[in-house]
Amino acid sequence: MKTSELQNIKLRYNIVGNCEALNNAIDVALKVAPIDLSVLIVGESGVGKDILPRVIHDNSPRRREKYFAINCGAIPEGTIDSELFGHVKGSFTGAINDSQGYFGAANKGTLFLDEVGELPMATQARLLRVLENGEYIPVGATEVHKTDVRVVAATNVNIQKAISEGRFREDLYYRLNQVQIQMPPLRDRGEDIVLLFRLFALQMAEKYRMDKVVLTDEAKLMLMRYKWPGNIRQLKSVTEQLSVLSAEREITPEILSRFIPQDQESTQLATIHTESDRSFENEREILYKILFELRSNVNDMRREMSTLKKQLEDVKGGDSTTPLSTTQLSPIQHMNPVTPALEDAVAEEYIEPENEPENLNVNEWSRQALEKALERNGGNRKKAAQEMGISDRTLYRRLKQYGLDDKK
């Protein structure tokens, strides 16, 4: 692109800056404007992504048609389908008239979807259908509507990460990303930062009839070294504060330091997490929590097994010379602490051998232990089962086996 043509575009849309990345973004926008492809503009919040969709529309064959800019993140999830695709009267509370939605109203024109990464998954499916064949169904309607809309989208979300976390459809991403334009962050634009400061300072001086603030050379260097996590939006805010609050019109590093954060954390780009974010770090923390709870449950079961063993030994009369065989232990004492849920299922199906002489004494001990547990819990079977570390089903089966089912 010729330098004169590029400068004319900058003057027309009030674009300030000469960095190569910015010029390249404008050049790509002008090249793709006459070609009816979907465009995805990516960049951090506050870098000025909203300028390029207007450039694309005004230099396209659709420039005489309507242009709508919609912030997808500002529309509630419950109404966004109605806003985009319209609705019929009576389809929901408050729908007193038919609405054609933005896709109907922008027919033949251009639709700019800002913060497209915030769209709900159901809305993403509807959007994909519109992009593929121009068809959509308004909320509450049964007939398919047609539209011819060019979509330009923008996002400050890492779409690839959102796809891996299941928050954004991969097929929609490829459909939106037919042409991608990268807007550079302010910290990478060098002397453009000083040019933007001059513009904002001049605008404040003209609007409020005050003397314009100017920067010393040291202050300019300080301004360019700062990381600007809020990008152009933050720079404009700082300039406006200086114009209003600074008694001096010549801004030195000492004055500037009072208006921009100087601690290391504030000069680093922050990663912001919302409640709807889904990350593998959070899932790992949840798994750790489950494992810790499982270990606690295993320790509790071990204590219950020790208590039951002691009860059986007490019933036996304290005779510890004869070790208990595996057939003499309660099913819970065979439980593997690593897989309690599986072993509990086995315990439910455990059937004590009948008519074996070696088990007669054990059965008597078990019956006595069961009676004592019922006495200690006032006949409450559920509490007795919990004390003995067995399930309600096993307790009821033993009551029947020992002829105790008619007792409370």
How would you characterize the overall build of this protein?
This protein is an alpha/beta fold and 408 residues long. It has helices at residues 3-13, 20-32, 51-58, 80-85, 101-105, 121-133, 159-164, 170-176, 192-208, 217-225, 231-245, 253-256, 280-316, 340-348, 360-376, 381-388, 392-401; strands at 39-42, 67-71, 110-114, 135-136, 145-146, 150-155, 179-182, 214-215, 250-251. The protein is built from 17 helices and 9 strands. The strands form 3 sheets. The protein has a 5-stranded parallel sheet, covered by helices on one side. Strands 4-5 form a two-stranded antiparallel sheet. It is elongated, with a radius of gyration of 36 Å. The model is unreliable at 265-279 and 320-360 (pLDDT under 50).
List the helices and strands and how they pair.
Elements: H1 3-13, H2 20-32, E1 39-42, H3 51-58, E2 67-71, H4 80-85, H5 101-105, E3 110-114, H6 121-133, E4 135-136, E5 145-146, E6 150-155, H7 159-164, H8 170-176, E7 179-182, H9 192-208, E8 214-215, H10 217-225, H11 231-245, E9 250-251, H12 253-256, H13 280-316, H14 340-348, H15 360-376, H16 381-388, H17 392-401
Parallel strand pairs: 1-6, 1-7, 2-3, 3-6, 8-9
Antiparallel strand pairs: 4-5
Q: Tell me the fraction of residues in β-strands, as a range.
A: 5-15%
How many beta-strand runs?
9
Number of separate helices: 17
Arithmetic mean pLDDT: 83
Largest sheet: 5 strands, parallel
**Helix and strand sequence:** HHEHEHHEHEEEHHEHEHHEHHHHHH
> Roughly how many Å apart are the termini?
94 Å
Poorly predicted runs are: 265-279, 320-360
Short description:
By secondary structure, the chain is α/β, with parallel strands linked by helices. Helices cover 48% and strands 8% of the residues. It has helices at residues 3-13, 20-32, 51-58, 80-85, 101-105, 121-133, 159-164, 170-176, 192-208, 217-225, 231-245, 253-256, 280-316, 340-348, 360-376, 381-388, 392-401; strands at 39-42, 67-71, 110-114, 135-136, 145-146, 150-155, 179-182, 214-215, 250-251.
